[in-house]
Amino acid sequence: MVLLTTRVAIGFAAALFTPFACAQDVITSDTHFYGQSPPVYPSPNATGLGNWADAYSKAKTFVSQLSLEEKVNLTAGGPETNGCSGSIPAIPRLNFPGMCLSDAGNGLRSTDFVSSWPSGMSVGASWNIDLAKSRAVGMASEFRVKGVNVALGPVVGPLGRIAVGGRNWEGFSNDPYLCGSLAAETVTGIQSTGVITSTKHFIANEQETNRNPSGNVSAVSSNIDDKTMHELCLWPFQDAVHAGSGNIMCSYNRINNSYGCDNSKTLNGLLKTELGFQGFVVSDWGAQHAGVASAQAGLDMAMPGPGSFWGSNLTMAVNNGSVPESRIDDMATRIIATWYQFGQDKTFTSPGIGVPKNLAQPHDTVVGTNSSYKKTLFDGAVEGHVLVKNQNGALPLKSPKLISLFGYSAKAPDNFDVNNGGWNNGGSSLGPQDTVTANRTTTHSQIASNGTLISGGGSGANQPAYISSPFEALSQRAYDDGSALLWDFHSSAPNVDPTSDACVVVGNAWATEGADRPGLRDDFTDGLVLGVAARCAKTVVVLHNAGVRLVDRFVDHPNVSALIFAHTPGQDAGRALVALLYGDANPSGKMPYSVPRNETDYGGLQNATLPEGVYEYYPQSEFGEGVYIDYRGFDKRNVTPRYEFGFGLSYTTFTFGNVAAVLAGGGCGKAPYMYPTEEVVPGGRADLWNVVATVTAEVTNAGDVAGAEVAQLYVGVPGGPVRQLRGFEKVFLQPGEKREVSFGLTRRDLSTWDVVAQEWLLQRGTYRVYVGASSRDLPLTTSLKI
Ligand SMILES: *[C@@H]1O[C@H](CO)[C@@H](O)[C@H](O)[C@H]1NC(C)=O
Ligand SMILES: *[C@@H]1O[C@H](CO)[C@@H](O)[C@H](O)[C@H]1NC(C)=O
Ligand SMILES: *[C@@H]1O[C@H](CO)[C@@H](O)[C@H](O)[C@H]1NC(C)=O
Ligand SMILES: *[C@@H]1O[C@H](CO)[C@@H](O)[C@H](O)[C@H]1NC(C)=O
Ligand SMILES: *[C@@H]1O[C@H](CO)[C@@H](O)[C@H](O)[C@H]1NC(C)=O
Ligand SMILES: *[C@@H]1O[C@H](CO)[C@@H](O)[C@H](O)[C@H]1NC(C)=O
Ligand SMILES: *[C@@H]1O[C@H](CO)[C@@H](O)[C@H](O)[C@H]1NC(C)=O
Ligand SMILES: *[C@@H]1O[C@H](CO)[C@@H](O)[C@H](O)[C@H]1NC(C)=O
Ligand SMILES: *[C@@H]1O[C@H](CO)[C@@H](O)[C@H](O)[C@H]1NC(C)=O
Ligand SMILES: *[C@@H]1O[C@H](CO)[C@@H](O)[C@H](O)[C@H]1NC(C)=O
Ligand SMILES: *[C@@H]1O[C@H](CO)[C@@H](O)[C@H](O)[C@H]1NC(C)=O
Ligand SMILES: *[C@@H]1O[C@H](CO)[C@@H](O)[C@H](O)[C@H]1NC(C)=O
Where does the Fibronectin type III-like domain lie (predicted)? Predict the structure, then answer.
């Protein structure tokens, strides 16, 4: 028997369309919003779709031997015996050793002997599928050695709807196609090692402000229509589920006023039915807000523990008939099937073995780092840098004799020890997290003034075995080639030696989980750059940026010769930068988001939504712009950005030619798009991945150094945005070398979500097809007619 206890009432229009209350009535009851998220019950059983059949048959046998209490025990974190973010208790009688779930998607948190990998946004800036995968494999090998069954990443939500989002750097890109492609590689790479991915945060988790209830203000509600949900927010989750992600983490925010972990439409409907998800859903830590209702809505595991909702109360809910035992069976079976699916029953490391509860106490050393992945760490750091200005070939530097180095982000942090956050807060200690959070109203409030920003802060950060800062790497270079270095890390208007061959200014834009950024540029850093540029004819600006950073206040200064968005490169930040500055490496990163000229260009998508007006207690974030975020919005509103999505310079030049676009089957006869099937695989309808058209083009390295170009394919789907990214390929070319690139366009790539049919549908008409080097540098055009 299924009783619908909350969130279910007769439907009426969502606040998105017509606020129900009179303008002057402050809403003080949650019941006002009931029914805005449609009820989808009962929660579907996983059945072993796709390649999950074996795992399910083993899991059913396993679960059939458990008592109700034992099954319930699997559904929530148990006592903390180690430093894992959460732990599922063992069942020794059946040789189940329990499970360790730990943060996060840019490296293992809260332990030693691990690496800080280039963070998600740097992976996004690399536009490199192979590198994304090798990073995933290398990172997961550390989780595995340390006994972590579930890595709490990758992040594909926030996607990056609002510019100041505190966690945008954890994800790959605010373009769903780029994000989804890199997420799929990351899921495949991590899970190839036997570690399960927890793709997060499901869903529409686009701001940190009011992400959780506080006092009598509830968590923010993302009010999002069905089309935007599918074409934007759900898209990368779909790719992750299709790639086999074993776990999905539901989010803190509400969606249409129903909490992410109690929302039957998103969990039972979108994830478990439409996408055919076969793994289990875990709550973000503390994101569960109901007992019976969350069980019925499709939550499978509560973290960090059962709280007052589950545990013995879940057992009681079964015994009193509120939750059918089959729902508990499905929870337990999904969890155990996922454990089998990735072979964790066979050879997995003992849960939590390398994640001690307290690193300040004596503990065994378990080395997660592995020199096999040095190149991946380094290449990832290099390719996450995007060169956006390079006046008169200022870079690469040509045997400079004297470099002057400025800025707080150029040197390693003063202090990085057990008491200063490394082991507890990860990279947030790389910023003066204590003063910065207390100082959000000062000019310093947007920056980490205490050292090289290798990652943003919060649960996505960790403590690497070492840090290479720009200062250390440049010092090493001076040692190697007999040149000289001058530095000043703290002055706002430093002295400049006029004989400097180049002045390198390294600043940052800090972001952390738990808060959105107070702005997109800061006066201190802008002033520092302008101060140096006034005295140095060749000023090279490097910004470690955990999110978009506006640069219009200084970038046109004639002495600002070069600008690099370094993103958050991880532990090899310094040596990667030096390789690029000296031309040992050729820049090949591209912007995974747009950089506008000014805040107003965002047209309302700069800041988080605040609780205000009648929604003083229930902040309502209306996703009224639909799919028109970032370049889709700039294109629609005719706003010319400073640096467009997909843009990035190289030390060589590339040309494009010979574009061709063909429909499968020549556009008639047995073309696969004419024969949709109903089959559902993890990720959704199987036919969504049928390739229905192919676009080819040629890329040539027309310069005189080797380099890599990202060939980008954009498509204008009839009735949709002017163009959307629908393919990319990074090609490494020797001088003069030419290569053909080929993009397979799937049924989903060429479809729009039809809210009436509840299907992805191809559109009749002419599709514009563009190929080139960025979203606004598209020398090749052609079309497809469907
Ligand atoms: C949210 O409400 C909109 C408008 O009614 C609807 O299109 C959409 O499907 C709802 N989504 C969820 C997850 O409730
Ligand atoms: C799940 O499976 C159980 C056992 O086969 C069955 O009793 C229950 O009705 C199923 N639930 C759904 C939603 O199909
Ligand atoms: C449930 O797990 C706890 C440890 O968290 C353990 O003490 C208890 O015995 C378990 N219950 C059952 C029925 O196995
Ligand atoms: C909300 O909390 C504030 C501060 O605690 C209090 O002054 C106010 O009365 C509360 N409002 C309601 C409607 O509970
Ligand atoms: C069960 O739920 C009740 C009511 O919410 C709560 O007071 C109690 O602490 C819960 N029990 C456990 C063991 O969490
Ligand atoms: C059944 O138990 C659950 C958990 O303690 C409780 O929330 C619910 O109100 C109970 N329902 C009935 C009908 O007793
Ligand atoms: C390091 O990684 C390589 C490549 O995956 C692997 O063969 C090797 O066993 C690893 N070394 C250790 C000590 O884990
Ligand atoms: C840098 O961090 C250390 C250790 O937390 C602290 O002592 C020092 O004051 C900080 N310096 C600045 C400039 O914030
Ligand atoms: C805030 O920043 C200013 C300027 O950097 C500094 O002098 C002050 O001590 C900071 N305040 C706090 C509370 O950390
Ligand atoms: C965004 O937030 C910042 C900091 O609170 C504020 O100064 C700015 O005016 C806001 N911008 C808009 C467009 O509301
Ligand atoms: C550029 O730098 C030179 C010093 O090399 C300085 O004389 C000149 O004034 C600077 N230009 C500007 C516009 O500040
Ligand atoms: C730039 O944005 C700011 C808000 O941050 C606004 O006050 C200013 O008018 C804008 N400038 C232009 C030229 O649009």
Answer: 709-775
Catalytic residue (one of 284, 516, 630, 687) = 284
Q: Which residues contact 142 (CB under 8 A, 6 or more apart)?
A: 107, 108, 114, 115, 368, 369, 370
Q: For residue 185, what are the CA distances in angstroms to 179, 203, 243, 508?
A: 10, 20, 8, 29
**How many Å apart are CA 672 and CA 692, to the nearest integer?**
6
Cα separation, 362 vs 505, in Å, equals 41
- To the query of whether residue 556 is one of the catalytic residues in this protein, the response is no
Count of structural domains within the chain: 3
Please tell me whether residues 316 and 384 are part of one structural domain.
Answer: no
Q: Which atom number of ligand 1 is nearest to the Cα of residue 38?
A: 14
Q: Which tens digits make up the pLDDT trace of 528-565?
A: 999 999 999 999 999 999 999 999 999 999 999 999 99
Ligand 9 center to 692 CA (angstroms): 58
Domain membership flag for residue 425: yes
CATH number at residue 705: 2.60.40.10
C-beta separation of 487 from 405 below 8 A: yes
Token readout for 398 is: 């040509």
What's the pLDDT at 366?
A: 98
H/E segment holding residue 527: helix 523-533
pLDDT in tens, 146-181: 999 999 999 999 999 999 999 999 999 999 999 999
Range of the domain at 311: 46-341
Q: Specify the residue for token string 């009820």.
A: 39
Distance in angstroms (rounded) separating the CA atoms of residues 552 and 544: 17
pLDDT by residue (tens digit) across 248-263?
Answer: 999 999 999 999 999 9
